[in-house]
Design a protein that fits this description.
- There is one protein chain.
- Helix 2 links the parallel strand 3 and strand 4.
- The protein has a five-stranded mixed beta sheet.
- The chain is α/β, with parallel strands linked by helices and about 110 residues long.
- About 30% of the residues lie in helices and about 25% in strands.
- It has a single domain, classed as Transcription Regulator spoIIAA (2-Layer Sandwich), CATH 3.30.750.24.
- It is globular, with a radius of gyration of 13 Å.
- Helix 1 runs parallel beside helix 2.
Length: about 110
């Protein structure tokens, strides 16, 4: 299986929420840029637009948990918007699904 690219677009801060739009899988080979942007997004609640993320692997789950811990420590939340059933099942199997808040899409955040 070839490595698929992960593209991340920083949509800026909207209503005290930093929004990052991800396109592609969050995996061991793609998580470094994600971690860098999450570290830079401190100081606001973080919304990750997952509508174009087909799956995450265990390293991706670890990166999400790290993002959760960083934001929780600062008193902020982490919201996954548009996470598909495959992503949610992976979070459920790894027993971290309750760490995150969920929204069906970005417009539901307003």
């Amino acid at each position: 299986m070839r490595d698929e690219a992960l593209r991340i677009e920083d949509l800026g801060v909207q209503d005290n929420k930093r929004v990052l739009r991800l396109s592609g899988p969050l995996t061991l080979s793609t998580l470094f840029e994600f971690q860098t942007l999450v570290r830079a997004a401190s100081g606001a609640n973080l919304v990750l637009d997952f509508t174009q993320v087909p799956y995450v692997d265990s390293a991706g789950v670890g990166a999400l948990v790290g993002a959760y811990v960083r934001h929780q420590r600062d008193g902020h939340s982490l919201i996954l918007a548009g996470a598909n059933e495959r992503v949610r099942n992976t979070l459920k199997v790894t027993r971290v699904q309750d760490f995150f808040q969920y929204a069906e899409s970005l417009p539901q955040l307003a």
